[in-house]
């Protein structure tokens, strides 16, 4: 395989596919394959999801050891308990960072991501560069995001698939013992849920 | 044998951490894909296979690949024909004032 990856033209606004998907939509509606409300519901579903959901799960786990146990053993049940809608055919697994282990999530084959919880993945997660390199040189990748775990910390990279989606439970930052749950939520960034960085401190 | 999508472990350049604003047609591509899945007309694995077999994989943006794959599956399954999609897309582009 060539070492030269072409950059995705993610920012292009004049895609010929804009008209094609509109055409597909119109034809599917006319033929009664889909209905207007089904398309609208599907748009609203994705718009309602964001990394804020992941931040709430993490902050609750930091506050409550029993919730952390549930999050690590049955993440969908934990999400349901906080009023989220984790329903999706894929498994949802939360992996815990410890003082000795740092987890990093990637989908080398495409872009699998816990969309039912966190929404759409960021562009860089889908980039050829991240997909190629996260499994080859995770520490170099994390350095680009401004973070690198200490030398003696083991880095585990989880490669997502269509059937299994991962999220990281980061370490609670030092010095946050007196913080309330709603303050802790603010520390948890999307990048820390993927593992390319750690929460704000 | 690895396909074009199987890039884990390959060397690569720096990661572009910029984020583009999701466009309406991209939201729609996402939504139609999910709605077809919800109706049992398409599975994630079928869509994935269709994306991975696109000849223009490396030349398309992310959601362009999604649309191309959705189209491929709908045609394969006999739900729509390429001709009717071509025709309708051309008429939409004329309506938008595009060549």
Word description of this protein:
The complex is a heterodimer of chains A (about 200) and B (about 100). Chain A has helices at about 15-30, 35-45, 50-65, 65-75, 75-80, 115-120, 125, 130-135, 140-145, 180-185, 190-195; strands at about 90-95, 100-105, 155-160, 165-170. Chain A is α/β, with parallel strands linked by helices and about 200 residues long. Chain A has 2 domains: about 15-45; about 50-195, Nitrile Hydratase, Chain A. The longest helix of chain A is centred in the first third of the chain and has 14 residues, at about 15-30. Chain A is globular, with a radius of gyration of 19 Å. Mean pLDDT of chain A is about 95; it is low at about 1-10. Chain B has helices spanning about 25-40, 45-50, 60-75, 80-95. Chain B starts with about 25 loop residues before the first helix and ends with a helix. The chains are: A alpha/beta (about 200), B mainly alpha (about 100). At the A-B interface, helix 1, helix 2, helix 7 and helix 8 of A face helix 1, helix 2, helix 3 and helix 4 of B.
What topology emerges from the helices and strands here?
The complex is a heterodimer of chains A (201) and B (99).
Chain A: H1 17-30, H2 36-47, H3 51-63, H4 65-73, H5 75-81, E1 91-96, E2 101-106, H6 115-118, H7 123-126, H8 128-133, H9 138-144, E3 154-159, E4 164-169, H10 181-185, H11 190-194
Helix pairs in contact in A: 3-4, 4-5
Chain B: H1 24-38, H2 44-52, H3 62-76, H4 82-95
Helix pairs in contact in B: 1-3, 2-3
């Amino acid at each position: 395989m060539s070492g030269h990856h072409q950059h995705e033209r993610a920012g292009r606004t004049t895609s010929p596919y804009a008209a094609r998907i509109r055409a597909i939509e119109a034809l599917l509606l006319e033929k009664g394959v889909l209905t207007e409300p089904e398309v609208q519901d599907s748009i609203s579903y994705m718009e309602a999801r964001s990394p804020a959901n992941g931040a709430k799960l993490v902050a609750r786990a930091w506050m409550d050891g029993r919730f952390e146990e549930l999050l690590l053993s049955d993440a969908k049940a934990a999400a349901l308990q906080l009023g989220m809608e984790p329903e999706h055919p894929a498994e949802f697994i939360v992996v815990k960072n410890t003082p000795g282990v740092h987890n990093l999530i990637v989908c080398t084959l495409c872009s699998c991501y816990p969309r039912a919880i966190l929404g759409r993945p960021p562009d860089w997660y889908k980039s050829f560069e991240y997909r190629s390199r996260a499994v080859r040189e995770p520490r170099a990748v994390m350095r680009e995001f401004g973070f690198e775990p200490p030398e003696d910390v083991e880095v585990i990279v989880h490669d997502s698939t269509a059937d299994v989606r991962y999220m990281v439970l980061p370490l609670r930052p030092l010095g946050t013992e007196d913080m309330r749950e709603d303050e802790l939520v603010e520390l948890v960034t999307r990048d820390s849920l993927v593992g390319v960085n750690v929460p704000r401190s | 044998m690895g396909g074009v999508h199987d890039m884990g472990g390959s060397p690569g350049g720096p990661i572009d951490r910029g984020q583009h604003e999701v466009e309406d047609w991209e939201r729609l591509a996402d939504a139609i894909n999910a709605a077809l899945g919800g109706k049992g007309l398409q599975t994630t694995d079928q869509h994935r296979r269709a994306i991975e077999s696109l000849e223009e994989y490396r030349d398309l943006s992310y959601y362009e690949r999604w649309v191309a794959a959705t189209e491929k599956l709908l045609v394969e399954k006999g739900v729509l024909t390429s001709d009717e999609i071509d025709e309708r897309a051309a008429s939409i582009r004329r309506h938008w004032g595009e060549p």
